[in-house]
Each structure stands twice: as C-alpha cells, then as structure tokens.
Amino acid sequence: MIKVMLVDDEPFILEGLSVLIDWNEYDCMIVANASNGEEALGYLKQGDVDLVITDIKMPVMTGLELLQTVREEGLSSAYFVILSGYNDFQYAQSAIRYEALDYLLKPVSANSLIDVINKVKSKKSVTTGDGNLGQDSSDRPEASTVLFKKELDDIISGIEHNDSNSISNSIDGLFSKIHDEGIVLSEKAINVNKNYIVFRLLHLAVELDESINQEVIMMYISDHILMNGTEMGSAFHLKQFAGEYARYLVNLRSTVSKGVLRDIEKDLNANYAQNITLKDFAAKYYVNSSYLGQLFRKQYGMSFREYLNMVRINHAASLLLKTDEKIGWIAESVGYHDTDYFIDKFIAIKGCTPSKYRKNGNELSD
C-alpha cells in the first residue's frame, strides 16, 4: 500500500485531488493532508509516507522549500511530485535538483496522477513474497464520504459538450438518487462533491487555455455552484449554472480557436516553403490535429493542405510578376520540388499556367 500525503493551501485542491481517482483501486491510501510545507514537514518527521504531492507556492513554507529541507536533512525517502500553476522552467530545474519524481501543471488530470502512482510502484521495493504490492489490515482506508462520482461525471460531460438535455437529465438523476435513497448529506459530504466538480470544471477550462486566471475561474465556479453550507441547492439553480458554464466553454473554445488560427496563418505566411503538415502545427500549438483540421474547414472553407497550396501559389504568382526567375526555380522556392505538380496546382488555383500568368501580367503593366 502506497501511503500518500497531499499538500496545498487551497482546500478545494486538496479535496479535488483526494477524489479525482479511487486511490484504493491503485493500492494507495491518503494518510495526511497539509495546508503548507511546515505542516507537512511536521508529519514527515513522525509519520511514514511514500509519496508527497505538494503545491509549489504556499505560505509559511513552499513546496520546494519542503522538498529541499527533507532532502538535505534526510528526513524521509518519500517520492515528491511538485504541482504548479506556473509553467516556469526554473521551478522544474529546482524540483529536479532535489530529486523530485515529477513536476505537474495544475489542475492535475486523473491520468497524470495514475502515471505518478505507476512510477512510484516501479521504483518502490515494498513487496510481498510473491512480488506483489501488499496490503495489511492497518493500511485499509476508512470509509470515504459519499461522492456521487458517476452522476457528477455525467453532468460534467454534458457541460463539456454543451448538451442541455444531457445536463438536465444528469442533474435530475443526481437529485433523484439523493431523494430516493434518503441520503442525508453532511457538510463534509457536500464539500467533497462541490470540490470535485469545481476541480473538474476548472480542468476543462485550462485544457482550452492555459493562460486563463485559474483563481478567478475557480471562485466563479465555487460561488455559483450553489452547494454551499449544508444545502445542495436546487436542481433548477444547478441546471442554470451548468448551462452558463457550458456557454462559457463554447466562447472560450471560439476565442482560443481564433487565436490559434491567427498564429498559424502568420506562421504559414512566413514558412510556407518548408515541408510542413497539419500534424506539425497541431503539435506546435498544442491542438488536436483532427480538431485543427475542422477549424480550417470551418474558417476557410478548405482543408489545411488546400490552404497551404493557396498560400504557396499566391507567393509564386507574386514572384512571377516581380522577377524573371525560371518556373522551376519559383516552384522550388515556394515549396514544390516537382515542377509539373506545381504547374497543375497553379492552373487549379489561378486558372492558367504560370507562363501565361506572367505574360498576362506583363502585358497589363505595359
């Protein structure tokens, strides 16, 4: 059993991490939470921990200061994973210097946590005689607070896809389950469910735009989710919020898409002669290639390859009129290594051969 400690000064992050995956399913148990490095240090001096997942920026003592102190004083052999909302390589360098296992940007995805656990398992030597990770009765976690994970995941999926029917049905399903099973939610249970949905919805926004102000979005979600205090809030209000957030994601996608296409358009006009593909740009701008292809068709009414040909042929047309260079040289200079193929594309786009285009242009200028 891998013993885990979570360290973050934001309560919703601690709750979100604790319920983002089923830790027990991956042979893990959260043995402690801490709100800063000093609290965590106190526990590490007394408790047995295998994995510390800590925020990098906290009051009193930061995550890096915690890691540095533990390593320099030899207080624990626990593996450390550093979390940060800032994509700063200097942070990563410091984390690596003190032998951090990994460095992850917030908000953390479930897959990232699972990857970390698998790294720990591959390094950890605590095994039973048959070579499998063991679990004794003292390691078994206490019964967890009620988390409506399936119902909340269904709501989140509806929000992600802006599907009003799915949102409505999923919310009705959540409230029906609470009512039909006679579940009385404690304040802790409400907070666990609230923080789970806040964490997941924040992640959807950050996946679209890493530059957004995470604290502002987090507060917006937290203030409007209507699960404060000891009341869950009405289904009507939850549906209203879910619809608003779904529309926010739609607008965010639109804004991000326009920005990406604008950047790619500039990039293409500068580097059109190079051997570039849709996948190259997708990787460069961190966009799914299929999604990027759809954006091109929607924005320009043509595929990426057709758009690239148009850019190349337009530059070739300009060279034909402004220079006396041979057709083969112009074809090569705009990215075509086969002159015949270049001529075919030129005819398809401009309606005549390059030679005729040059001749007609020169005649008009006389």
Describe the 3D structure.
The protein has 16 helices and five strands. With 366 residues, the protein is α/β, with parallel strands linked by helices. α1 (11-20) packs across α8 (187-208), α6 runs parallel beside α8 and α7 runs antiparallel to α10 (235-271). The protein is elongated and about 85 Å long. The N and C termini lie far apart (85 Å). The relative contact order is 0.07. Residues 126-133, 135-144 and 227-232 have low confidence and may be disordered.
Give a short synopsis of this structure.
Helices cover 61% and strands 8% of the residues. By secondary structure, it is an alpha/beta fold. Strands 2-1-3-4-5 form a 5-stranded parallel β-sheet, with helices on both faces.
Describe the structure using short key phrases:
366 residues; alpha/beta; five-stranded parallel sheet; 16 helices; 5 strands; 8% strand
| Share of helix, binned | 55-70%
Provide the spatial order of strands within the biggest beta sheet.
2-1-3-4-5
Tell me the major beta sheet.
Answer: 5 strands, parallel
Mean pLDDT: 81
End-to-end separation in angstroms reads 85 Å
The parts where pLDDT drops under 50 for at least 5 residues are 126-133, 135-144, 227-232
What are the secondary-structure elements, in order, as H or E? Answer: EHEHEHEHEHHHHHHHHHHHH
Count of helical segments?
Answer: 16
* Strand composition percent: 5-15%
Radius of gyration: 28 Å
How many strands?
5
